Amino acid sequence: MPVGQWATAGKKCPHCGVVWGFENFGGTSTPLHSPADARKTEVSELTHRRALARDSVEAKDADVRLTRIAFEAKDADVRSEAIHSLTDQVLLAQIAAREENAGARRAAVSGLTDQTLLARIAVADKSGAVRSAAVRNVTDPTLLARIAVEDEESFVRSVAVEKLTDQTLLARIAVDDENDYVRRAAVDRLTIQKDLSTVAVEDTDQTVLARIALETKNQQIAVAAVNKLTDQTLLARIAIEADYWSGGKDAAEKVTDPMLLARIALETKKWQIGVAAVNKLTDQSLLASIAIEAGYKIPYDGNRDFVKGGLGSLACEKVTEQALLRKISLETTDEHARGVAVGKLTDQILLARMVLEDKTNYARTSYPCYAESVCCAAVRQLTDQTLLARIAVEHTHALVRESAVEKLTDKKLLAKIAAADNGNVRRAATSRLTSIR
Predict the structure, then answer these.
(1) HEC profile of the chain
(2) 368: buried, middle or exposed (CB in 10 Å: 19+, 13-18, 0-12)?
């Protein structure tokens, strides 16, 4: 619709250059029935007429008119439309050599089959779009390899890569190319062939894939490489060395060997990958080893939220054997794991010994208050009144004495503590006396 009563459809606005009646079309407006549109319609009709021609004369006439348009039309889009309909290799070669417009040259090149001419265009044409059209028709693997590595345009390199079969070269491109799409195209072309004449490397194809996963800077490429890996040792190496989102998590999830899973949990620097490894483990001895050796680290999860505890305590949660829990409680330096182990112990003598005799419990941790809570956890597991009485009287930390008092049943001892001790311990003894009367 016209924009005003004085506007006439088809004329330009003096302010913005929009042709009235075509305000909703972006860019430079062109009337719907422009000369270029008419010529494009003519090309379409001629192409259709040639396809339906009943005799050679009619088809030849259509060819002649299409050729004239391809060479003489002023509008490059019209020429391109006509060129797409041509099949004469001589004419297409002439257009590819003489045409100044890149779109029209590309139309001509896309129909060429002459490998010598295509090779020259694929390397020398100044337009990347034209070179990519030529590369699509090139069959020489040596030339394709050269273009895949040397062309300055990433989309031209990716077209060449999509036609490569050289596994060694593909692996190098997947690692070294600066463009994500080219690297991805190379990974997609890696077929994991076992024929060493094709994979001309000293290492196996699995090693090549592992190198890609570890060296590429693109997460999607790393994950794609990991997804093709089956070698357990290489998967473990990636899980240990790679980032969480760059194949590390996926590699850990593909590992099934318990020893390798334990190694991942102990050696990875990424807490989430360690968690993935521990979650897959069921071997009690290996879980106990992780609980003892992992130590306590303060990690962050994927959302950057503070994470309480560590892999040691997570592994300890999965341990059920009393002998291993005792070993963890005595040997680990991770007080969180120690607390979990103590909370699952039932051996009364061992629990009391941990509370009364472990003098290194506080000195060896950066968190003395947590060591104290470990002792409290041990007290909560105790049921022996003699042992509880001894702790309530002898322990040096008030919080531990308070925990023992809360489980005592000896009224005389409670009354003595209520009169002699101070603070929270005295109040706990008084409260306990009241509750058992």
Answers:
(1) CCCCCCCCCCCECCCCCCECCCCCCCCCCCCCCCHHHHHHHHHHHHHHHHHHCCCHHHHHHHHHHHHHHHHHCCCHHHHHHHHHCCCCHHHHHHHHHHCCCHHHHHHHHCCCCCHHHHHHHHHHCCCHHHHHHHHHHCCCHHHHHHHHHHCCCHHHHHHHHCCCCCHHHHHHHHHHCCCHHHHHHHHHHCCCCCCCCCCCCCCCHHHHHHHHHHHCCCHHHHHHHHHCCCCHHHHHHHHHHCCHHHHHHHHHHHCCCHHHHHHHHHHCCCHHHHHHHHHHCCCHHHHHHHHHHCCCCCCECCCCCECCCCHHHHHHHCCCCHHHHHHHHHHCCCHHHHHHHHHHCCCHHHHHHHHHHCCHHHHCCCCHHHHHHHHHHHHHHCCCHHHHHHHHHHCCCHHHHHHHHCCCCCHHHHHHHHHHCCHHHHHHHHHHHHHHC
(2) middle
182 within 8 A of 173, measured Cβ to Cβ = yes
Other residues' Cβ atoms within 10 Å of the Cβ of residue 174: 29
Q: How large is the greatest C-alpha to C-alpha distance in the chain, in angstroms?
A: 124
411-420 average pLDDT score: 89
**Of 258, 286, 290, 292, which is closest to residue 271 (Cα–Cα)?**
290
Please, which residues bridge with residue 306 across strands?
A: 300
List phi, psi (to 5°) of 321.
-75, 130
Summarised one tens digit per residue, pLDDT across range 367-411 is 445 556 778 888 888 999 999 999 999 888 888 899 999 999 999
Enter the tokens of residue 65: 């008119």
Given this model, what pLDDT does residue 262 score? 95
